[in-house]
Amino acid sequence: MKLNRYNILLVEDDINLGFLLLEFLQSHDFDVKLFRDGEGGYNAFKNNHFDFCILDIMLPSMDGMTLAARIKKLNEKIPVIFLTAKSLKEDKIKGFKIGVDDYFIGRSLDVFISKLRRYLNDDPSVKIECIPKVGLILTDNEKPRASN
Prior knowledge:
Elements: E1 7-11, H1 15-27, E2 31-35, H2 38-47, E3 52-55, H3 64-74, E4 80-83, H4 89-97, E5 102-104, H5 109-119, E6 128-129, E7 137-138
Helix pairs in contact: 2-3
């Protein structure tokens, strides 16, 4: 089944993680633009069409919280997920107050792709299976919710 190609803004300053995510998302039929700092990501968002934003919190030139707030001011309906190692409750609360849709703190990229497809309403009837060693299968039609 050929999926619609969605445009994703990915802002991640870690070079290795950024390229890993870029290649992984592209292998799942997403068009991805990778930027390594908040200012570059914001300028790209203003000048291009994106369907989804994936942001790190700790970024040079403009932190992810500020970037997310500015993106939401331009388009309050665009889904924004923080992909981060920061899991403090205070960070999550601050992010949700500015309009961030979710946080992804785990390591399973397959689960992340499942969340991404659900936010984009990309055929929720398709079952997304994780890699066998994880042993997790997502089959529900429920939109992901933020965890506490």
